[in-house]
Amino acid sequence: MSELTLQAKELDAADALAPVRSRFLLDDVVYLDGNSLGALPAHVPDRIADVVRREWGELRIRSWQESGWWTAPERIGDRIAPLVGAAPGQVVVGDSTSVNVFKAVVAAARMAGEDRTEILVDAGTFPTDGYIAESAARLTGHTLRAVTPAEVPDALGPRTAAVLLNHVDYRTGRLHDLPSLTAAIHAAGALAVWDLCHSAGALPVGLDAHRVDLAVGCTYKYLNGGPGSPAFLYVRRELQPRFDSPLPGWNSHVEPFGMKPSYDPAPGAVRGRVGTPDILSMLSLEAALEVWEGVGIDAVRAKSLALTDFFLSCVAHHAGDRVESVTPAAHGERGSQVSLRCENAGDVMKRLIEAGVVGDFRPPDVLRFGFTPLYTSFAEAERAARVLGAVLG
Amino acid sequence: MSELTLQAKELDAADALAPVRSRFLLDDVVYLDGNSLGALPAHVPDRIADVVRREWGELRIRSWQESGWWTAPERIGDRIAPLVGAAPGQVVVGDSTSVNVFKAVVAAARMAGEDRTEILVDAGTFPTDGYIAESAARLTGHTLRAVTPAEVPDALGPRTAAVLLNHVDYRTGRLHDLPSLTAAIHAAGALAVWDLCHSAGALPVGLDAHRVDLAVGCTYKYLNGGPGSPAFLYVRRELQPRFDSPLPGWNSHVEPFGMKPSYDPAPGAVRGRVGTPDILSMLSLEAALEVWEGVGIDAVRAKSLALTDFFLSCVAHHAGDRVESVTPAAHGERGSQVSLRCENAGDVMKRLIEAGVVGDFRPPDVLRFGFTPLYTSFAEAERAARVLGAVLG
């Protein structure tokens, strides 16, 4: 047994989160793509079967009340809230991330007031945020400027309405400094909108503590909600009365079954709802969140850093200078993934997958490996690096 | 056996669609709320179990390609297309009805050109359409005017950009004249946007034949997709190159995995997509559409009219003048529901449900009974009317 496999064995033996792995259905594949689609929690299939057969099939329309379908968006939002550092009543689940980015950016631009005419967007963002921010700016009459997070402090000014930033860069895995950037944005009198797709469920976010204004996030990555499970929207409590949604669907009405011709928005997080929620995808997410029972986000973060540290050591050992990490080495700048640059990265990823190590490829030359501390072991991190070394030859 | 029960027996015996009922999981309840949530097709539970256990649980991320998840929105759109009279390549599934109304109204207003500054909306619409149209008008700088469908021809003018109408009124069950209203809208140089929530799957729509510009519809009513299954959007082929979405998410990009910083929309119906599709809800819908195998929408319409005619006769017999139908008697003006006005309607519906007849109540005084020809029998129509008579005392 090599020194690294021994070390992995010791790390796994000492890992307090190791038993959580059994809450998921896994196999011999080293699955390092949980930052794209989280693995299946073991109890979700039975729960969904019950939703389909009994709640839909037998109770039918009665389930909107009797099975709690109607209140699922805010109930599940409250379940996600502690994982992102939010008190109850500020998170609502529903729609895709893109749609929630639209709600958040339009609402932020409106709240900033008419004198503030510019929206800033992360230049390295996952593209949909940029496309949607551009549409939001066009519809609200704002200009849009793309800047890197590092450039944000200098770009801020009396004209800045809102800034849309990613907590963790989807490509490089770089963690941006949410507390200091949010403070800088507030000092300029603007609103901070954070995209938490690559941090929710992977590391502490501290939305309330840092007085983030609005945030959106994905639930099918580190929250394991299932393919295309609905996104979430956070609106800080103090801002909720001024949250003026561009998508004022009937689900956000103060009296949704009153069928009133004029729109009167509900108070609270419910104001972020739009249309009828996609119950199957949503209740799959609710069931998936049960794997967090007794698990704290700080423990997850500690294991995430230990896993990525260890993986980077193993990669250095097995793959040497044939790859270059584009993920920062500093803990304070690292999310829960490791991105490696190498030649023919698309082909390398194909061969890795054939060899039972699943990450993904992002053009032009990045191999991404996501680490989900709830189910990834140190032994898997070592094996992935070893297979990578072999594939690179 | 009374004359009406005999008549029901004969009608059921002669019903060519009667065998389709066995494609659903039903029980002794007379379920006349399929216009709110369609019943569960019998094969859907096994299909969803496979999606969860094998496609998500075993294949995980590979399913986006290998299980056809990525192309589901347009594939399922093409499956719905013939039911609403559309050739392939014009319907895409995803998001809620409200979100699709937003896409359609904004896109229509933009296509109409800058000289056209007014949007007309059905004054009796399901409220969300009105709320969303108001938001769309506000964001695009149009004025919004609410008119009844009957007032539309007179309200049209050189300033009209687009008209949003309901094919069937959700409250009264009145079917509006899509061909002639669309022609009038076109004669005024405006665009016609139709909401098909209460007609898709219940009667022929003829989108292509009548040159409808844009349409949206729900899939959890007469299409039985399951609670909150995603809505659909139709964009007439000739208009697709000019379809300028207010929600240009990455799924509508010509090269979604290119991760390009600038937005370049895909051609075709795909342009109506936004973010990651909610796979569980979407594939439930896809499975549900299999009940249409060998079933034509014309046969469904014929049975729908026969069912509602028969129900109205039975109601006249059993409930006499204690209720008043607000659904038009003329076939050309009737959707696939019957709405009855009576005193204490909310309480009457509660007692009907307790007695095993499920419809729903819409304030202030309407009992709604939806007829889904795929699974509703004439015997059930008779029983519902008989129980109503007993409940009314």
UniProtKB/TrEMBL annotation, chains A, B:
EC code: 3.7.1.3
A Pfam family recorded for this sequence:
KYNU_C
Task: List UniProt keywords, sorted A-Z.
Answer: Hydrolase, Pyridine nucleotide biosynthesis, Pyridoxal phosphate
Q: Does the keyword Hydrolase apply?
A: yes
List cofactor names only. Answer: pyridoxal 5'-phosphate
Part of which pathway?
Cofactor biosynthesis; NAD(+) biosynthesis; quinolinate from L-kynurenine: step 2/3; Amino-acid degradation; L-kynurenine degradation; L-alanine and anthranilate from L-kynurenine: step 1/1
Enzyme class, one word? hydrolase
InterPro entries, alphabetically? Kynureninase, PyrdxlP-dep_Trfase, PyrdxlP-dep_Trfase_major, PyrdxlP-dep_Trfase_small
Matching SUPFAM superfamilies, A to Z?
PLP-dependent transferases
Where on the tree of life does the source sit, at the highest rank?
Bacteria
Indicate the transmembrane segments per the record.
none
**Family of the protein in this entry:** Belongs to the kynureninase family.
What protein is this chain from? Kynureninase
User: Which organism's genome codes for this protein?
Assistant: Streptomyces graminearus
